[in-house]
């Protein structure tokens, strides 16, 4: 893919700018109810209703997630949606015992991973300037960039899922090494964290835990 230039570039930029103005004219901010749904009153869930999540919703979820920003549009995250009994059995090998029923009961468990070779796709993702030289032969920089931006994309996935009416429950109580061996052996992918997705059984919820105040966590300079 080649980047536009000349008049085509000017037209593309003008369209992008106008599209953003039009968006802001349609909606200046989300409603309080929408903010409550995706973050303020959202909860992490560990029990699930026996209600499947169709593949069409997963495709829509990805279509929203992929639009979240990453540095240089690197998009290093890769998502494995584990739904089948065989996939769940493989994934269960990596989990701490107390997390197995949480995962097995969820309609879908997403392995949020990242590709260490993400930078090889930059001619497509960042076509106006070849920046592969920033990453070629620099594994530590690749790992740092992939992990940070892949984590961002995992967070976008969780917020997008809530926006679509799904519930989520992220998990880190597992062995990355076992997941990588079971699902990514021989590839350039590495696991980051897991996230259960479905429709929650709220009877398993307890009270929301405390949060820091602005004054405790923030500084304005």
Q: What structural class do helix, strand and pairing data support?
A: alpha+beta
Query: Structurally, how many domains make up the residues?
Result: 2
Q: Specify the overall morphology.
A: globular
Q: Please give the radius of gyration in angstroms.
A: 20 Å
For the termini, the CA-CA separation is 43 Å
Please report the first level of CATH classification, the CATH class of the largest domain: Alpha Beta
Per DSSP, the total helix count is: 9
* Strand line-up across the major sheet: 1-2-4-3
CATH superfamily of the largest domain: NADH Oxidase
The helical percent reads: 40-55%
Number of strands: 4
According to CATH, the fold-level topology of the largest domain is NADH Oxidase
Strand content: 5-15%
Average pLDDT for all residues: 96
Biggest β-sheet: count, sense, barrel?
4 strands, antiparallel
Secondary-structure element order, as H and E?
Answer: HHHEHHEHHEHEH
CATH architecture of the largest domain: 3-Layer(aba) Sandwich
- Ranges where pLDDT stays below 50 over 5 or more residues in a row are none
């Amino acid at each position: 893919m080649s980047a536009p230039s000349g008049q085509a570039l000017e037209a593309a930029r003008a369209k992008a700018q106008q599209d953003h103005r039009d968006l802001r004219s349609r909606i200046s901010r989300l409603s309080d109810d929408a903010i409550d749904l995706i973050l303020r009153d959202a909860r992490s869930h560990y029990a699930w209703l026996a209600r499947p999540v169709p593949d069409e919703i997963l495709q829509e979820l990805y279509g929203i997630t992929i639009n979240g920003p990453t540095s240089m549009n690197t998009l290093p995250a890769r998502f494995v949606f584990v739904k089948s009994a065989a996939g769940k059995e493989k994934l269960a090998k990596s989990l701490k015992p107390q997390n197995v029923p949480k995962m097995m009961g969820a309609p879908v468990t997403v392995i949020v991973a990242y590709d260490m070779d993400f930078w090889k796709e930059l001619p497509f993702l960042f076509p106006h300037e070849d920046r592969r030289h920033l990453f070629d032969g620099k594994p530590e920089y690749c790992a740092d960039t992939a992990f940070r931006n892949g984590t961002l994309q995992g967070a976008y996935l969780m917020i997008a899922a809530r926006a679509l009416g799904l519930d989520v429950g992220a998990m880190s109580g597992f062995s990355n090494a076992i997941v990588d061996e079971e699902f990514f052996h021989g590839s350039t992918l590495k696991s980051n964290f897991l996230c259960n997705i479905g429709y929650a059984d709220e009877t398993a919820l307890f009270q929301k835990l405390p949060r820091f105040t602005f004054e405790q966590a923030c500084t304005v300079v």
